[in-house]
Amino acid sequence: MRSLIDIAELSIEEIDELLQRAEDIIANPKKYAHACDGKKLATLFFEPSTRTRLSFEAAMYELGGNVISMASAGSSSATKGESVADTAKTVSCYADVIAMRHPKEGAPYVASINASIPVINAGDGGHNHPTQTLADLLTIYREKGRLNNLTVGFCGDLKFGRTVHSLITALSRYTGIKFVLISPDELKLPSYIKKDIIQKNNLEYVQTTDFEAVLPELDILYMTRVQRERFFNEEDYVRLKDSYILTPDKMKLAKADCSVLHPLPRVNEISVAIDNDPRACYFKQVFNGKIMRMSLILKLLEVEV
Ligand code: NCD
Fold this sequence. Notes:
Number of domains: 2
Strand content: 15-25%
Strand order of the largest sheet: 7-6-5-8-9
Order of helices and strands: HEHEHEHEHEHEHEHEHHEH
Bound molecules: N-carbamoyl-L-aspartate
């Protein structure tokens, strides 16, 4: 039995299998409509979510399975003081797989070592978000036809943005990847990721505050929201929240085939005027997220189709 807590737990070959399976699901959805008949997914969300929870649930329904859901911490026994370990043991009696989001880093890991069913990390604090990365990888793969030889810019809150941490970890294993890290000084990529992932693998990278200077060289631009809920005070958030805004004028500086990604929710970082630009891929990412979650559920439940 296997869980997914950190994207690094999947080998490049396994990611490739998940991508190929995703392409097959897109091409032949009927083939998968009963693949998870009789199985249940439990979504345990101790933090707000629109896409991640609903896409896990839609994914399970499209595989013919069922869903039981805890949509907020406030409605659960966590308010009575129940531990994550006890919750995981309990839900193991009700479901076949758990998707868990939690504000505390490491909580889904604790769940995974206590559960008797696979646990999928659906976002833990400012740490990791592996299934968003699967959505991002499918999007890049479908747009570019490859996951190597790419200059990838990350812009915004690189400190608290868990989707950034997981995508950098995943891409660091492909060849010819160059990272361009664009953020205010206060929101730079955590040094543990820079040292343990980027520098350890001898990857090329630049760190800058100057968005416009680097925009013309990017193949992928990954925009992110400043993560208000992780700030210690509102003043800092207000000062930093609009550090980078992608406008149609700025898009003129980008390559004609630069793909713009964003894990969503968008606050102010991308002007809505860009939504119809053919380079905008963020709503395609939403669709791809559901498909990759289908692909992942099949893998973790070891379903043969
Ligand atoms: C992201 C998250 O929860 O980390 N959202 C998502 O799952 N698509 C990004 C964010 O909240 O900014």
